[in-house]
Design goal:
Helix content: 10-25%
Radius of gyration: 22 Å
Distance between the termini: 69 Å
Shape: elongated
Structural class: alpha/beta
Length: about 350
């Protein structure tokens, strides 16, 4: 059952998403609403567009949620299969674990938490034309210090895998998308945790395998932190990040059906308002993400923050760079700043938390 592109895809979605807690207490990170659809939908639609039809999801944390939502993948024009890790196996072990379900000679592997815009067909073409054993998508970033670097030679072959450093020799970083020849997946040790970045790739260089880099400057963001999640979502809404899932006009906000926006509310900066959510008069939402059923009352301000399912922000409250868990309630005139996180169901009374005086 090989697909048109002669490749199959594997998406690693087993992570616990701890950096996005408390949102990931109820849903795995790839299922969090991103511009109105589960984050993973954006990646699956890109894979389908590239002509790959068979996708295996390597799940672990809250594994059942993926199949409940996506089923057999027919809605997206895909054939989806699910393999659940009973013990966490790391990135390399996760790839090796799905091998029995793979039939194609070339397998495209994705980290399930990257929002990207690169042309997947171009990566596959690089893999074919260079006859590579493994091809890595490398993306050029303006500040590579936060990432491990991957230098390449004049022929585009990878020469090293370097840890994070304050003085990186190249601006090319591992973008979390790889193409493996099947036999190189077979070489990954089975039944134990393996890191593809720290163990598999360096070993390939040592044994002289052809590891090719496909370098571009396409849109790329790891959605692992609240800050990146907010920025990635806003980029989708504003059309900076491409996605075929989002129809029509892009702009300053995306308001889903059944949401209520009172007169005088301001929605800017790529704000997303979920289904059945409510925004009160004079509220200001700048780069905010309101999950379904969330409520922001009159005169409140929400900036660069995520408001969980059914959570409430009281009148004239301020939430900036925060994460509010599902069903939590932030009382009137509260101020939550600089990475504040409120756990699900927590009730903060009116004026209960502030960063300034109340006069």
């Amino acid at each position: 059952m090989a697909s048109q592109a002669g490749a199959e895809a594997v998406i690693l979605v087993g992570g616990k998403g701890t950096r996005l807690r408390p949102l990931t207490l109820s849903a795995p990170k790839p299922m969090l609403p991103t511009a109105g659809v589960p984050f993973l939908t954006h990646l699956l639609s890109r894979i389908a567009e590239a002509g790959i039809t068979r996708v295996v999801l390597g799940t672990s944390y809250k594994a059942e949620v993926f199949e409940e939502h996506f089923g057999d993948g027919a809605d997206l024009g895909l054939q989806l299969e699910y393999v659940t890790e009973t013990e966490p196996l790391g990135t390399g072990g996760g790839i090796r674990n799905v091998l029995p379900r793979l039939t194609a000679d070339n397998v495209m592997v994705f980290n399930g938490d990257v929002l990207g815009g690169t042309d997947l067909r171009a990566i596959l073409k690089t893999h074919e034309t260079t006859r590579a054993d493994v091809t890595l998508h490398l993306v050029r970033v303006s500040d590579p210090r936060a990432f491990g670097c991957v230098p390449t030679d004049a022929d585009g072959r990878v020469t090293a895998f370097l840890e994070k450093t304050q003085d990186p020799p190249t601006d090319q970083i591992n973008a979390g998308c790889y193409v493996f020849r099947r036999e190189y997946i077979e070489k990954i040790p089975a039944g134990r945790p393996v890191s593809v970045e720290r163990e598999v790739f360096p070993a390939l260089l040592t044994e002289g395998a052809r590891v090719q880099g496909h370098v571009d400057t396409s849109y790329w963001r790891d959605m692992g932190t609240p800050e990146d999640f907010v920025r990635g979502s806003a980029d989708l809404v504003r059309g900076i990040a491409p996605s075929s899932v989002l129809p029509g006009q892009r702009g300053e906000s995306l308001v889903h059906e059944g949401a209520g926006i009172a007169p005088g509310a301001l929605l800017i900066g790529g704000t997303v308002v979920g289904r059945g959510a409510e925004v009160g008069a004079g509220a200001r939402l700048d780069g905010a993400i309101l999950f379904d059923g969330a409520k922001v009352e009159a005169g409140a301000t929400v900036e660069r923050s995520i408001i969980g399912f059914g959570a409430r922000i009281g009148p004239r409250a301020l939430v900036r760079d925060g994460v509010i868990g599902d069903g939590a309630s932030v009382g009137a005139r509260c101020e939550l700043l600089r990475g504040a996180r409120v756990w699900p169901g927590v009730q903060i009374p009116d004026g209960g938390i502030r960063f300034s005086t109340d006069v």
